[in-house]
């Protein structure tokens, strides 16, 4: 296939689909694709979106009811869904903005498994709109809420490590105090035994007199 003549789909030696766009071969997402972390999946799909010509949107997630950690995440196109008009509730809109939502269903669903890896369990590649996005716009993928969550997660992880270090130091200190107390107790016992022995000998001497 001549990649310079346009787009097309080929396969590599591993059987993974590669899409050719403007002479650049791009690895496509597929069900069963594995990543080391959620962030790795985001980075891959963001790069895929940028190269293919759409903007990634970080969408819904499912969290653990026990500890709140993210178990699954949906990543999609920024043209997913439709904008809900509020016209009529608050009066006429002076400068209506053009809608960026076109009901696009392209997305991937990644899920964490028992091994800790993140696996694509669902993948929809087809877009219902032209794939034309400027490089500058394509880089603006993660919204402020998602960035804040990442910052808080990193901060929490650092605090947990600090707490674990303090706990380790406290345990070591308590162990040292316990050992020191045992030594003092043994010394006190030796002194008490010596004192009793001395008193016993003193009584024997008194009786002999």
TrEMBL record:
<feature type="coiled-coil region">
    <location>
        <begin position="142"/>
        <end position="183"/>
    </location>
</feature>
<keyword id="KW-0175">Coiled coil</keyword>
<protein>
    <recommendedName>
        <fullName>FAR1 domain-containing protein</fullName>
    </recommendedName>
</protein>
<dbReference type="Pfam" id="PF03101">
    <property type="entry name" value="FAR1"/>
</dbReference>
<dbReference type="InterPro" id="IPR004330">
    <property type="entry name" value="FAR1_DNA_bnd_dom"/>
</dbReference>
<feature type="domain" description="FAR1">
    <location>
        <begin position="44"/>
        <end position="132"/>
    </location>
</feature>
């Amino acid at each position: 296939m001549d990649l310079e003549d346009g787009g097309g789909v080929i396969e590599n030696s591993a059987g993974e689909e590669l899409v050719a766009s403007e002479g650049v071969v791009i690895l496509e997402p597929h069900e069963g694709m594995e990543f080391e972390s959620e962030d790795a999946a985001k980075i891959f799909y963001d790069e895929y979106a940028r190269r293919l010509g759409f903007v990634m949107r970080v969408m819904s997630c499912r969290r653990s009811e026990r500890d709140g950690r993210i178990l699954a995440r949906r990543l999609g196109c920024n043209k997913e869904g439709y904008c809900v008009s509020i016209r009529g509730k608050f009066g006429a809109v002076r400068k209506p903005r053009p809608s960026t939502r076109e009901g696009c269903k392209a997305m991937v669903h990644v899920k964490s498994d028992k091994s800790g890896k993140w696996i694509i369990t669902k993948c929809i590649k087809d877009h219902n709109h032209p794939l034309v996005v400027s490089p500058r716009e394509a880089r603006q993928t993660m919204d402020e809420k998602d960035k804040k969550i990442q910052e808080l997660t990193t901060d929490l992880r650092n605090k947990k490590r600090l707490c674990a270090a303090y706990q380790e130091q406290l345990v070591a200190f308590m162990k040292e105090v316990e050992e020191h107390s045992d030594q003092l107790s043994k010394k006190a016992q030796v002194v008490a035994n010596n004192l009793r022995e001395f008193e016993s000998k003193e009584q024997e001497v008194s009786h002999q007199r």
